[in-house]
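Dear colleague,

As promised, here are the two records you asked about, laid out in our usual form so they can be pasted straight into your sheet.

NAME FIELD: protein one
SEQUENCE, THEN STRUCTURE:
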Amino acid sequence: MTAPLAVLPGDPRGIGPEVMVRGLVLQRVRRAVLVGDAEALADAVARFAPGASWPIVDAPGDEPAEVRAIRWSVDAALAGRVRAVVTGPIHKARLAARGFGYPGHTEFLGALCGVDRPVMAFVGGALRVALVTVHVPLARVPGSVTSEAVLHTVRVAARALTEQLGMRAPRLVVCGLNPHAGDGGLLGHEDLEVIAPAVAAARALGVDATGPISAEGAFLAARRGSADLVVAMYHDQGLAPLKAVDFGKSVNWTLGLPFVRTSVDHGTADDLVGTGRADPSSARAAVRLALQLTRHGQAGAPSIVAHQSGSAPSVQQSDTPPSRS
């Protein structure tokens, strides 16, 4: 029997509970465990999936509900009790104000798994992007872009595309850090001295990588189908064009973890709570990708055996659609 998905709403005050539940309904998933604030999740299920039998886990502890949910889900994933972790949006500023010491999901997941540098990637729409640096202030980006970090990102992304998405020989194009990829050194030295050696090293290891080239050139290549993934040096270099083209279609996919983790590509959108205008497309896409990436090799995974108060709930479901409208 295949283990269920762990589905987390993120911040219970945002649109996460609604869109994650609606995403499960749209994808017609029965084998899922909802992990997070029990009241917010139960309300979302009652409103958007009446009659659904997904168990709800509200893990105990003194931390915010969304942090406890992440810890519980990581433990369950590492133990094989869930097949993947699908997360809704957290509110980074609200969590920081409550003492959360990580800039985002990705860094926290890496720490919990003992993975020094998980890679944030986005797939599912017209573009695929992986980031060398993630939640780093722009002023600190140049010092964070090292040859080792670029090579690490390229290798992890290429391996994930091959091993999990089934691409035989993925083509990666690597952005420069500076305008025009440094314009031969006129606009900065990092492209020639830091990024180019990393790309050469990746090619020497058998990765089909090109660069550094200007960011606009890299994304144009991806849009034209001559590259399978863009490696961007910093958050907005990669996500501004991706979200302009693919908002609601792309999925945040964390590479390098010992289990599959996908997430929505948007924030908590507090202003949309209760309006009926929150779009569940990204949540559905995140659920769909998690199922796709874990479709094989899951037979015999341990099933969940308990309910509530931090224990995993009993699940007797299949991936066939629930009988509801």
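NAME FIELD: protein two
SEQUENCE, THEN STRUCTURE:
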Amino acid sequence: MEKDTEINGGFFVNKPKGLTSRKVDNIISKAINIKRVGHIGTLDPLAEGILPVLIGKATKLSRFVDSGIKAYRVEMILGITTDTDDATGEVISVKSVKANSNEVLSALKKFVGKIEQVPPKYSAKKRNGIPYYRLARKGLEFEIKASNVQIFSIANVEIDLPKIRFDVECSTGTYMRAIARDLGSILGCGGHLSGLVRTRVGPHTLQKATNLDVIIDSIQSETPKKYLVCLADLIPHIPRIRIKDLEIWQVIHGQIIQNFGLQFRNSEIFALTDSNDKVLALAEKESSSYKYLRVLV
């Protein structure tokens, strides 16, 4: 299709298993003929589920679309440890599973709350600007620092040993592969992630997502905006203020509107919209005024 510079928004893609998140970006970018395309929250090739892909000016909203909460349906297998902590890696240990269901449930409870988690060796975390997975693939030894993450809940546990399934609601930056690895370690038999579906990114759930092939078909059928989510709907959790013509002019020119946004708490983020609810900018409340975070017009 011809390039349309007015396409700004996002697609909630139901990512299929087997594709990298970057590959999904590239497929959409090529189909829609726009270079400014990027996803929020990388999913491994093994994983499926909701992947927000932002287009055009919406890429400026990347850190605001995710409200800091994600949710997953996790499947893991006990007794088999791999070098990647998931089913794509090489098996490095096989042990018998002696734990019973009650012991599994008890071990899972230890993960709920604020915890320190060591990211997988094969991950996108970086050391001196280089992703861990690149260092690991070269066979290099390197220190992996633990991260502070939070598990808000673990629910709907299904145990059919050696397979376990459960739902996790957690903070951004939490690795499900690490949970599988660490649960196996607690139970003394090892374990790895065998399946993963992301069901939520911030306020957006899997029910909002559309299969990638359906999105591509709509683009190729000259209806690229059929499944496109507008900027305002990408950030429904962010409060907003509607502004008038003179104020819109001030925003466009980066001028601060006097005595504006004072009703918000310090450091609270809010959006400025026009009469049609089009998001024009994001701002952050300061002690006596505010500062622009992103101007989108």
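A couple of things worth noting about protein two: Residues 9-67+204-234 form a domain with the Pseudouridine synthase fold (CATH 3.30.2350.10). The chain has three domains: 9-67+204-234, 69-197, 240-295.

Best,
R.
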